[in-house]
Amino acid sequence: MDRIPILKMGSFLLVTIQVDLYDRLALTLENDLITMVSRTGAKGVLIDISAVSIVDSFMGRILGNIASMSRIMDAETVVVGMQPAVAITLVELGLTLQGVHTALDVEKGMELLHSKIGITDEPEEDEEGPDDSND
Amino acid sequence: MDRIPILKMGSFLLVTIQVDLYDRLALTLENDLITMVSRTGAKGVLIDISAVSIVDSFMGRILGNIASMSRIMDAETVVVGMQPAVAITLVELGLTLQGVHTALDVEKGMELLHSKIGITDEPEEDEEGPDDSND
């Protein structure tokens, strides 16, 4: 088991975390996820952590990292299925998962992503760069 | 890690197998899945095995069992993401996964389920039992 599978579902990517995220696995997941976002043009990333019963600051940081990276790649991240004990631990650790959206389950997460993507289609500010039109 | 999470997505259930299915875990998965089919009225079960690189006759039997149980509960089973080596091994083991539908990835599996559910809405043959109408 050297990598966590990433499932493409329409314009979203779904990741189910079922094992402990040790260093190398977490880095591989970050890499794979960003590569997939880039390759598929996914607009949302759903991370299901319903099987995660123990959380530490490392795990919290990884989730934050993934959310930050995805946002730079123009994709929203929603963490779903968090167990109550995990939420308690995260807050006690002082990790409020800034920039990470959460939802109770995958279906609600999908709805949230749909609404986010629906709302965030405002015109982007074009940076005025040199006219490098290569047509 | 004592159980594999089952994600409900609309009228389908999605299971991602990322770990080796030893005896107890497989039985728990079978139980959980059938309970979920019953509780949610799911019409399809998607099993993603893209992270499974080694398969044995036990795994083949478990997939067959799940498909048989689901069919009795009026749900179709589609196995997706099978690695080529796994397909080779299954055939060499003489396991042709009868009754299990397969698709290349989750998206194609979803399409297959949609088409199956669309097709299979033919009227069921009612068994002529005693008239136990409790209205």
TrEMBL record, chains A, B:
InterPro entries: Bact_StressResp_Reg, STAS_dom, STAS_dom_sf. It comes from the Bacteria. Residues 1-113 form the STAS domain. Signal peptide: none annotated. SUPFAM superfamilies: SpoIIaa-like (SSF52091). Pfam families: STAS. PANTHER family: RSBT ANTAGONIST PROTEIN RSBS, RSBT ANTAGONIST PROTEIN RSBS-RELATED. This is STAS domain-containing protein. The lineage of its organism: Bacteria, Pseudomonadati, Bacteroidota, Cytophagia, Cytophagales.
